[in-house]
Design a protein that fits this description.
By secondary structure, the chain is of the alpha/beta class. It has 2 domains: 35 residues, no CATH class; 205 residues, TIM Barrel (Alpha-Beta Barrel). The chain has 9 helices and 13 strands. Helix 2 links the parallel strand 4 and strand 5. It is globular, with a radius of gyration of 19 Å.
Length: 250
């Protein structure tokens, strides 16, 4: 009976505050997550009906499988987005150049790969400025996309990035390739959820990520979906981001 009263109370609150209520159960307790429409949210996916979607690769550790990933992208004529930390960029400048020259987009993944929701505005600006400069010095292309390390963010981070001319990008489909899932498991996770407007998260140094790409690309392309870099997938003006993180045209 108590649980029913709690649910009724939260539902009433959602009507008043315009909140999205997510209910889950954890060891017998009802746990509510409230995402208010006043929050400054990153872009998780895009409201598109034209069968376009994006795949992205976060670069923070190593290059062991990067060439194989690039070869798969070339073979299937897929252009994508790589998010790079500054220390990765500085350690592997030849790969930064190679990725850019093969037609892929590059965004920043921060300078130090830290939890940026714990930072001040000045610290955030330093992370984004220095990491973007490191990329731009090699590619000659302006950085306009940013993915927070660990997917960790708060309003200040999203607001500060936006004021610096950067779109904060999350993901709607998580490959979990960093857990060393098999190629079949990675592909299965992605194929179950990918749709028009999706942003897929992968990592350049996932153990079986490169092997999963032919399975992913062949199936989704056959389905009629078209891959493009995130910078071409998202809207640049006249949009809003709803409480689920979906970017929608006004």
């Amino acid at each position: 009976m108590k649980l029913k009263k709690i649910i009724a109370w939260v539902c009433s609150l959602s009507c008043i505050a315009g909140c999205l209520i997510v209910l889950r159960y954890n060891q017998g307790y009802a746990v509510f997550t409230l995402a208010t429409k006043d929050r400054d949210l990153p872009i998780y996916c895009v409201d598109r009906k034209d069968e376009k979607l994006s795949i992205s690769f976060d670069c923070a550790w190593g290059t062991d499988y990067t060439d194989k990933i690039l070869d798969a992208l070339d073979f299937y004529k897929v252009k994508c987005t790589f998010f790079m930390t500054q220390f990765w960029v500085e350690k592997y400048p030849d790969y930064v150049k190679k990725i850019s020259e093969r037609g892929h987009e590059i965004g920043t993944h921060s300078r130090t790969h830290s939890h940026m929701s714990k930072m001040t505005a000045d610290e955030i600006k330093d992370e984004l400025t220095t990491s973007a400069n490191a990329i731009e010095k090699i590619t000659g292309k302006k950085v306009t996309l940013f993915r927070p390390p660990y997917g960790d963010y708060d309003d200040l981070l999203v607001k500060t990035a936006r004021e610096m001319g950067m779109y904060t990008i999350q993901w709607s489909v998580d490959s979990l390739d960093w857990k060393d899932l098999s190629a079949d498991q990675i592909a299965s996770r992605i194929l179950k959820k990918a749709e028009s407007g999706s942003i897929i998260l992968c990592h350049n140094n996932g153990l079986h990520t490169a092997d999963s790409l032919p399975l992913i690309f062949s199936a989704l392309i056959e389905k009629g979906l078209n891959f493009q870099p995130i910078g071409e997938l998202i809207y640049k003006s006249g949009y809003k981001v709803d409480v689920s993180g979906k970017q929608i045209l006004n």
